[in-house]
Specification:
Blueprint lengths: L1 H6 L25 H15 L4 E7 L1 H11 L4 E9 L8 H4 L8
Parallel strand pairs: 1-2
Helix pairs in contact: 2-3
């Protein structure tokens, strides 16, 4: 998808959240949604991004919603690509089937 967008003169960034994928070596017990929101907001800062169409897939839908709350002036549009859309008063554990909180 990144290459397709680039072929149409769009820039696409694909940051990996802390503790996942190539950043799995950073996994710790204290990593949570706030960490992942910070990952993306820092990408905006580092790359000096504005007027962004921010796409979230699956759990990423919850992440982009949090990013939009923190830096709404830098986001043009949110796209939930088969992503979870958070609801007031609900947590990821309420929205994602099979996700269980470690107690």
């Amino acid at each position: 998808m990144t290459r397709l967008l680039a072929n149409h003169n769009h820039r696409a960034y694909t940051p990996t959240l802390t503790g996942l994928g190539e950043r799995s070596h950073l996994l710790r017990e204290d990593i949570d949604l706030s960490t992942h929101i910070l990952d993306i907001t820092q990408e905006f800062e580092y790359e000096d991004l504005d007027n962004v169409i921010l796409v979230g897939h699956s759990y990423g839908g919850i992440v982009i919603s949090g990013v939009a709350e923190r830096i709404p002036d830098r986001i043009k549009r949110l796209v939930y690509l088969d992503g979870y859309i958070p609801e007031d008063g609900k947590t990821a554990f309420d929205l994602i089937p099979g996700l269980e909180e470690n107690t």
